[in-house]
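If your schedule permits, I should be very grateful for your opinion on a structural question. I have a record of one protein: its chain in single-letter code and its fold written as C-alpha cells. Would you kindly read the sequence against the C-alpha cells and tell me how you understand this chain to fold? Thank you for your consideration; the sequence and its C-alpha cells are set out here.


***
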Amino acid sequence: MTSIIGTYECKIDTKGRVLVPASLKKQLPAIADGFVLKRSVFETCLELWPMQEWNVMMGKLKKLNPFDKKNDKFIRRFMAGVKNVEIDDAGRLLIAKDLIEFAGINKELVFSSKIGIIEIWDKKLYEASLIDEDDDDFGELAQDVMSNISFDE
C-alpha cells in the first residue's frame, strides 16, 4: 500500500479539468496505469484510487457473494459513478460532470490524502468537514480509534 501525504488546493476549469500539483504527482504510483475516480461512501466528495489500490479493493469485493441481497446492493452502490481516468500529458485530470455534481465542486477544490487514495473535495465543503460541530471532539475520536492499536511493532 502506498501512503500519499498532503492537502493541495487547486482550481477546476469549466470543462472539468484540474491541474494535478507536481508535488502530488510525484507521490502517485504508476501514473501510466491510470486511476479510478468514484463517489465517496461516507462524504460528499470523490475518491481517486491509483489502479494498484483499486485492484486490491476489487480482489476483496470479488469475495462477496453476489447472491446475498445486501452484498449485491453494496456492490452496486459502491460502484455507482465509477470512472477510469488518467492524468494527461499536460498534468491534468478530467472529472466527469456527474461526479462534479455529486461532490458539489465549484471553482476551487482540494486534493486531500487519505493513506493510499486521494479525496477530492469542493474547498468550502472540505473546510466545513473539518469543523463539523456534530462530530465528537477530535481528541476523543483519536482515543476511540487509535487506543486499541499496538505501537510495539
Observations:
- The mean pLDDT is 89.
- Residues 50 and 153 are 27 Å apart (CA to CA).
